[in-house]
Amino acid sequence: MSERVGAVSLPSPPAAPPLRLTRREKAAIIVRFLLNEGAELSLSDLPDDLQADLTQVMGNMRHVDRRTLASVVMEFAAELEAVGLVFPRGLSGALSALEGKISPLTAQRLRKEAGVRLAGDPWDRLRRLPVETLLDLVDRESTEVAAVLMSKLDVSKAAELLGVLPGERARRITYAVSLTGGITPDAVERIGLTLASQLEDTPARAFEKGPDSRVGEILNYSAATIREDVLTGLDETDEQFAMAVRKAIFTFADVPARLVARDVPAILRDVPQDVLVTALAGATEDTTARTVAFLLENISGRLADQIREEVEERGAVSAKDGEAAQTQVVGVIREMAEAGDIKLKDPEEDPDG
Predict the structure, then answer these.
(1) Topology of the domain covering 250-338
(2) How far apart are CA 235 and CA 225, in angstroms?
(3) pLDDT band at 100 (very low <50, low <70, confident <90, very high)
(4) What does the DSSP 8-state code read for residue 167?
(5) What would the mean pLDDT of 246-253 be, rounded to a whole number?
(6) Which of 145, 217, 255, 284 is the most buried (most CB within 10 A)?
(7) 205 has pLDDT over 70
(8) Residue 2, SS3 per DSSP
(9) DSSP assignment of 232-280, as one string?
(10) Residues 139 and 116 sit within 8 Å (Cβ to Cβ)
């Protein structure tokens, strides 16, 4: 390349070589470049000292020519392509990456042995907790701390938590939220770390479900005579536990009270026809007969008539075969509910509500 000045052609000046930069300066250039391009960067997960270094380096830099920018971006892209896998740093990062993949008991033991606390933003973990666990935290904390927790939750979960709190406690926490305007980010972070540390100090449970749910699930698959005998014994031994178990039980007779009418066609499509016919043919008691009526009333008239004909042709079935088929029908309902395909009604709900 050259340019003419009057009648004389002058050569273009040679391109300046890229600036010599430190790795931190190159990192600052990449961050600045990505921000200019509209990328969403989450730098808060970096250690505090790295965040401070990055900010200071960016504050000290001024102008970078296009040749240097291109060189830094190409070097960054080459390093990315050369990376096969990136492992989390240290035991803390590994435990966070494997959270939910290894047993809670193993994770807790490793943290305790190594003195490791959870890394990252504690509020991310707190937001993922179920309302029942959050309620336990709120019960143990002051009104002011509970107000900060409520403010950091998603709106829908905060509303759900507020709904299960006693009225007076909910009012005090709601008022305390109005006083959190002057709280500093450092104080909020310390509160989050304190709350998260309480979760680590909670002993790991061997069973995910409570004893009432576990007993209820066992009795769901037991013969009716055995189920009633066990419940009678529980009534005499521990009436409150017996009541909780009864709430956890879901049998063929409970279908009208638990199943939403519009879900009946979807349920029956997943039940093998011979199983359905046997279950209905074995429903000779008043309680199970109501389930038969409920199911047939909520499907098309033609299909209901067809099933009635097949039940009549099937004739009488043994109590054992009928119960086994009814258990299979209930099993399909429970599987669909656990998968989120349908939603069961609370057994204490008003059926007309």
Answers:
(1) Annexin V; domain 1 (1.10.220)
(2) 15
(3) low
(4) H
(5) 86
(6) 255
(7) no
(8) strand
(9) HHHHHH-HHHHHHHHHH---GGGHHHHS-GGGHHHHHHHS-HHHHHHHH
(10) no
Q: Is this model's pTM higher than 0.70 or not?
A: no
Task: Say if CB 90 and CB 120 are below 8 A apart.
Answer: no
Q: What is the DSSP letter of 341?
A: S
Query: Which one, of 59, 55, 38, lies nearest residue 46 by Cα?
Result: 55
In terms of Cβ atoms closer than 10 Å to its own Cβ (0-12, 13-18, 19+), residue 285 is: middle
Q: Over range 298-321, report the average pLDDT.
A: 93
Alpha helices (runs of H) in the chain, residue ranges in sequence order: 23-36, 48-60, 66-82, 90-97, 104-114, 122-127, 131-140, 143-152, 155-164, 167-177, 185-201, 211-220, 224-237, 239-248, 255-258, 264-270, 273-281, 286-297, 301-314, 319-338
The answer to whether 26 and 71 have CB atoms below 8 angstroms apart is: no
Instruction: Please give the residue that has the higher pLDDT: either 119 or 309.
Output: 309
What HEC string does 192-242 produce?
A: HHHHHHHHHHCCCCCCCCCHHHHHHHHHHCCCHHHHHHHHHHHHHHCHHHH
Dihedral in degrees, nearest 10, Cα atoms 268, 270, 273, 275? -100
CA distance 350 to 121: 42
Tokens 């309480």 correspond to what residue? Answer: 198
Separation in Å, CA 80 to CA 29, 37, 73, 76, 77: 16, 18, 11, 6, 5
The predicted structure's pLDDT at residue 145: 92
CB 51 within 8 A of CB 27: no
Asked whether 261 and 300 are in contact (CB, 8 A), the reply is no
CATH 1.10.220.30 fits 121-201, yes or no: yes
Both structure tokens of 114: 């190594």
* Residue whose C-alpha is closest to residue 179's, from 151, 137, 141: 151
Question: What's the pLDDT at 312?
Answer: 93
Residue ranges per domain, the chain? Answer: 18-82, 121-201, 250-338
φ and ψ of 22, to 5 deg: -80, 165
